[in-house]
Amino acid sequence: VSIAETAAAARFFNADGLIVTGSATGSAASPQELAEVTRAVNHTLPVLIGSGVTPANMKEYKDATGLIIGSYLKKGGLWQNDLDEDRIREVVEEAQKYH
Predict the structure, then answer these.
(1) In Å, what is the CA distance from 47 to each residue of 32, 53, 84?
(2) Is 82 exposed, middle or buried (0-12, 13-18, 19+ CB in 10 A)?
(3) Are 71 and 26 a contacting pair, CB within 8 Å?
(4) Contact at 8 Å (CB) between 41 and 5?
(5) For residue 80, what are the CA distances in angstroms to 41, 70, 75?
(6) How many angstroms separate the CA atoms of 48 and 50, rounded?
(7) Which of 4, 19, 61, 81 has its CA 20 to 30 A from that of 49?
(8) What pLDDT digit, counting tens, does each position of 17-64 carry?
(9) Are 50 and 20 spatial neighbours (Cβ–Cβ below 8 Å)?
């Protein structure tokens, strides 16, 4: 079953939205899969990116409804560490370019 078929099924079953992720926490999602999912739901549902977002790749996800950013905001990019104010600032500054 393809990601597009899964997205279409989620739409059929009245999902509130979809999240496209990479293979693990912190792994970048595929911009191609974002496009496939968005087309499959015909822009009728929110499609979010749920992993691997950084200031360096944020532009690749500009067509997503939203971004879930966690690990990158932590010191060293590790989910178990404290928040890193410099990383937070970088993300906010980059995101403002696309809003």
Answers:
(1) 13, 14, 27
(2) exposed
(3) yes
(4) no
(5) 34, 10, 9
(6) 6
(7) 81
(8) 999 999 988 899 999 999 999 999 999 999 999 999 999 999 999 999
(9) yes
